[in-house]
Design goal:
With about 200 residues, the protein is α+β, with helices and mostly antiparallel strands. Helix content is about 25%, strand content about 20%.
Length: about 200
């Protein structure tokens, strides 16, 4: 089902991923509705591995997800999960956290870089976004493929390799004799020699 909300794009950006072992960047857009009632975050691309949901995240839902925390309380990325519809990508909270950090709304916590704390003036940020004119924006309908989301290669692109023989159980006697120890070969030949 498509999102019927008409959006205006305020700006686009590129944010480094926030995970401790993450590499690459996320492309994103900051949007608002045409009535200037709500601001939205949207991931539009991923330079490395990992699925992301093509859904707009209302700023009010982000605020609601953090409402139970004190202003300076550190939290992990999974705290942002309620900002997304259920059943979306497990990467979404971490990717959103990266965007919020890039926008100056979160910072790594002193307790550890895997945690974040709120920074900046959230109300002023939202007011500034809603005050911008923006440009009409159409939501992407298909996720760009990344190394982890790319389709399997087609049969035409697969190079056939020669089949590999698989030996099960003991090798036959002829094979075994060719690889046996030289002294054992001599003993075996002597045993079969009628003159011996």
């Amino acid at each position: 089902m498509s999102d019927p909300t008409p959006y205006l794009c305020i700006r686009t950006g590129t944010a480094p991923k926030a995970g401790l072992n993450s590499t690459g960047t996320l492309s994103y857009a900051i949007l608002k509705d045409v009535d200037s009632a709500e601001a939205y975050f949207l991931v539009t691309g991923n330079s490395s591995a990992g699925y992301y949901s093509r859904v707009t995240v209302p700023f009010a839902r982000i605020e609601a997800a953090l409402a139970h925390l004190t202003e300076d309380q550190a939290f992990p990325a999974k705290t942002l999960k309620p900002a997304f519809p259920s059943g979306k990508s497990a990467n979404d909270p971490g990717f959103l956290l990266a965007l919020l950090r890039h926008e100056g709304l979160l910072s790594p916590a002193p307790e550890g870089a895997h945690l974040s704390v709120r920074t900046g003036d959230w109300a002023a940020w939202k007011t500034a976004i809603l005050a911008e004119a923006g440009e009409p924006f159409e939501l992407p309908t298909k996720q760009t493929q990344t190394p982890m989301t790319a389709a399997e290669p087609t049969s035409a692109s697969i190079t056939a390799a020669p089949p590999v023989a698989v030996h099960k159980g003991k090798k036959n006697r002829k094979d075994r004799a060719g690889h046996a120890h030289p002294d054992l070969n001599a003993i075996e030949e002597a045993h079969h020699d009628p003159a011996a």
